[in-house]
Specification:
Elements (H helix, E strand, L loop, with lengths): L10 E2 L12 E2 L2 E2 L15 H5 L5 E2 L6 H14 L1 H7 L1 E3 L11 H13 L4 E5 L4 H4 L1 H6 L8 E6 L13 H13 L3 E9 L2 H11 L5 E6 L10 H22 L4 E4 L1 H4 L23
Parallel strand pairs: 5-6, 6-7, 7-8, 8-9, 9-10
Antiparallel strand pairs: 1-2, 3-4
Helix pairs in contact: 2-4, 8-9
């Protein structure tokens, strides 16, 4: 389907590296209390608009009800396109905070009832409690239309306001047992051992991984031989998951990895061990 550029109040077309996560994003709030030391919202021009630890509804919305009204109108306007590419929550905050989760779930219910897929990315471990509203509002047959993602770095010390990585993985397990799709953002890779550890611990419960390098660091931050070994190790874990758990998690290697990792040619389509650039998996 031909790409449609959206520039609405709730829905919009992401640019740059965010475009590898989703064709359409939804931001209701700005600000995040996780206070992650590597957060891209702390740097550059975006820091003044989207940074800070105070969570606030975007100024273009009068209130939460107005935000939902505009969201629904924009979903109706682009419904055919959205049914193909889905909606991602959120690039400007954590959509499952106590301040944001209710509006996120209400918007997700609207989208799912319109047969629009929804993708959520969070660092909150109490997500299974937040989905009670969702479970009570959509039928079991539509549960596949939402996928819950968790950012996993293995570095709790750099994410002081977020739930510990171990608790996020346990939340992923509980959501998987409830019949939802799950995924993980292994981005940024702070160090290879920590990232590999959370992949190993989560792979039984995770359907899909998106893996990317840290931005804004020096060119020699990553050892290229170690990066190559990491890529091979991840693909080995995928094979182990197939063997031991009868499941086939997919992996999307972001361009930040592919452009610097000189992996030996193993077989055709090595980098397409995953669903390529599809946004819905």
């Amino acid at each position: 389907m031909e790409e449609i550029i959206i520039n609405g109040k709730a829905l919009y077309t992401p640019k740059g590296a965010a475009r590898e996560y989703a064709a359409v994003g939804c931001n209701f709030y700005t600000g995040c209390p996780h206070n992650c030391s590597y957060c891209y919202l702390k740097r550059g021009v975006l820091s003044k608009q989207l940074g800070g630890t105070d969570v606030q509804l975007k100024k273009c919305f009068a209130n939460e009800g107005n935000a939902l009204f505009k969201f629904k109108n924009e979903c109706d306007k682009y419904i055919d396109y959205l049914r193909v590419v889905g909606i991602f929550f959120s690039f400007s905050t954590d959509p499952m905070l106590k301040e944001t989760s209710i509006l996120t779930m209400m918007a997700a219910i609207i989208a799912i009832n319109l047969d629009i897929p929804v993708m959520i990315l969070t660092k909150c471990s109490d997500v299974p409690m937040s989905v009670n509203l969702l479970i009570n509002s959509i039928c079991m047959e539509k549960r596949h239309l939402i996928s819950f993602g968790f950012t996993l770095t293995g570095r709790d010390d750099m994410e002081p306001g977020a739930s510990p990585n171990e608790e996020r993985i346990d939340a992923m397990r509980r959501l998987k047992e409830l019949g939802f799709k799950t995924w993980a953002s292994i981005e940024p890779i702070i160090d290879f051992d920590s990232s590999l550890s959370v992949i190993e611990k989560s792979i039984r419960w995770c359907d899909h991984y998106k893996i990317g390098l840290r931005s804004g660091v020096s060119k020699d931050y990553y050892d290229l031989d170690e990066l190559t070994e990491f890529v091979c190790d991840v693909n080995h874990y995928v094979e182990v998951a197939k063997r031991d758990y009868a499941k086939s998690p997919t992996v999307y290697w972001k361009e930040s990895v592919k452009k610097v990792c000189k992996i030996p040619h193993v077989y055709p389509g090595y980098w397409d061990y995953v669903v390529g650039k599809d946004y819905i998996w």
